[in-house]
Amino acid sequence: MSRSRKQNADKRPAIDKQAAFTEFKSLESESGAELEAKILASRNELKNARQEIRNKTEICNSIKSQIDSVKDDLDSMTDKKKMEHINQGKNAGLSDGRADDFLEADQVEAEEIIDE
């Protein structure tokens, strides 16, 4: 096989891709020109699709930024409310500073009761 490859290489020198494409376009048949037009149209379509993706990505990032901002605001409001509940518990006379009675049920740690 290597001999046949060498013989084929000796018969015709290789030409670069651009020269081969130019030669293909200039053939009598119109298939070369048609293919070039299709390639150019496909490139333009790809370019437009990429730009649309960039635009939509920018919109998504903007919305994500707004969501993160609202989440931070909600977290700070929740923390503020927890602190208010703790302070209310201290002011209500709980000696150990526990304000579990004022917190939501899912945030209170369950205490283990041992019956003997």
Structural summary, described in words:
The chain is mainly alpha-helical. The chain has a domain of 79 residues. 69% of the residues lie in helices and 0% in strands. It contains three helices and no strands. The longest helix has 61 residues. The termini are far apart. The model has no long low-confidence stretch (mean pLDDT 77).
Average pLDDT reading: 77
What structural class results from the helix and strand content?
A: mainly alpha
Proportion of residues in helical segments: 55-70%
Distance separating the two termini: 91 Å
How many strand units?
A: 0
Q: DSSP strand (E) fraction?
A: under 5%
What is the 3D form?
rod-shaped
Low-confidence stretches: none
How is the biggest beta sheet arranged?
Answer: none
> In DSSP terms, counting alpha (H) and pi (I) runs of 4 or more, how many helices?
3
Radius of gyration: 37 Å
Topology as H/E string? HHH
Topology at a glance:
Blueprint: H1 2-11, H2 17-25, H3 31-91
Quick synopsis:
With about 120 residues, the protein is mostly helical.
Features:
116 residues; 3 helices; mainly alpha
